[in-house]
What we know:
Blueprint: H1 3-21, E1 27-28, H2 30-37, H3 41-53, E2 57-62, E3 65-70, H4 72-90
Antiparallel strand pairs: 1-3, 2-3
Helix pairs in contact: 1-3, 1-4
Amino acid sequence: MSDKDLRWQDEILQLLYWMRGEKLATDVTAAELNRFLGLESSQLDRSLEQLAALSLVQVIDRAGENCFQLTPRGVEEGQRRFRDEFSSYLGKENHLECGDPNCDCHSSGWDGVCHLSESH
């Protein structure tokens, strides 16, 4: 696997994590992902296949079309990569967390979605 392949896998995990946290989508088609990524279809397919083989994404059927969704492990990896990439821009509070320091979204076992965010 090349560095380029690894880079695109990281980008896909971050994008899926961000989309989930922003409540844009929890499962997306390759075409929907590629609106943000602009990859050659062969590169995108290869990256998604590898992420599925690593159990970081799962393929689900949505009205006859393959969609990709983060697995629980994929959420953890997406969160870690997102934080690594954007921590200098996020300040003290991490993306997708609320302002309540007692909320679960500030714990290490956080599932990637602030369940109190609608009340904050």
